[in-house]
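Q: We require from you a single protein entry containing the residue sequence and its fold in token form, and nothing else.
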Amino acid sequence: MTDARSGRDVSPRQATPRPWRWYDFAGLFGVFALALALRWGWPGVIDFKLDEASASRLAVVFARDGWPPLYGVTSSTGIPTPPNAIWVLAPPYFLAPDPLLATAWIALLSALSVAVGYWLARRYFGFYAALITGLLHAVSPFSVYQARKVWTPGTQPLFAVLTVATGAVGFIEGRRRWQAAHVFLLAFTIGVHFSALPLALVTAFLVLANWRRVDWRMVALGVAGAVVLTVPFVVGVARNPNIVMTQDAAIQDHQVRVSAQALEYTVQNTAGYRLREWGFPDAVPDHPAYVEDDVAFFLALEVVFVVGAGVVLAAQSWRRRQAAEGVFGLTALLWLVAYIVLFTVQWAPIFPHYYIALWPAPYLVMGAGATVGLASVGGCVPAGGWQGAWRSLWRQSLARRS
């Protein structure tokens, strides 16, 4: 259906139409409980160093004086960051200046990002994909580790997945108000930490792939909100230009280069490989935190699984590119690939925590790819969506057993 005045396609694509069943809610509760237990358990095991202290100091000042900061901590490039992360970090410090309480708050936000990822996978790929996505994200070593740090990148995961979720519902399904929310959340998430910039590629794809469904008034509203959000930061830096510091020596000496480090860090963040080097840099071989690096087999298995699931998802999504789940399948793949592509050419040094906004894209690709792949192998034609294909495959297997 096309709007007569604007020519815009206003007929919404339908995501998985099935209402939630008891097992959908049970899966959501189980995944969220697991994520929360791993992030809230052992509360004294946290990482609190200079970066965490700097962010906490700004949040404590905000809570004590009641005046929101105009800028956040200064990045390694010498450029101050917007205060978004400090605003997110501040609520527990209004109760008490206790880093343990702030860590519990960050852990809760991380667990909520797992729940939103489950909801997103359930909406477009069904229960089984949601369960795989949620379980992999809940036990992700790097995700659990980052949930125990009260620094600015640790506040990012929930807003990153909300950015993609609002973009999917807004542009793929034609929900206009969600488009405004997506543009605002994109700006907010990038303001939390500049490493979220690859999400702008996801936004560009959603706009181009759903061009006739874009409501430019809603997009303009989102842009206006983003401008209002950014004005205090710009004013703060303009009033205090001395806050722009000298770059680190590593930044000054860095040569622009093409590197496979982006792919390496993607694998690290997905599998938790070499986590001890970042979480326990002083660990010795006989320390309990020490983990042997001889895990080539498991890394190869993970890469094969992700690549295989990605190929299957890409093929099936392209075949169903007119449907909501097909477009979102391509979106999830771009979300994963964007971080590899944009950071392959390195204008400055990159670090593993730049990939925090990547979650739960790898797990979403694995869950969705496994689901549609197994459904296709079972000879199911997903005319009613991949959730229906899985249910049909399950009935076939029960019929064979009987």
Q: What stands out?
A: The first helix runs from residue 22 to 40. Residues 22-401 form one domain.
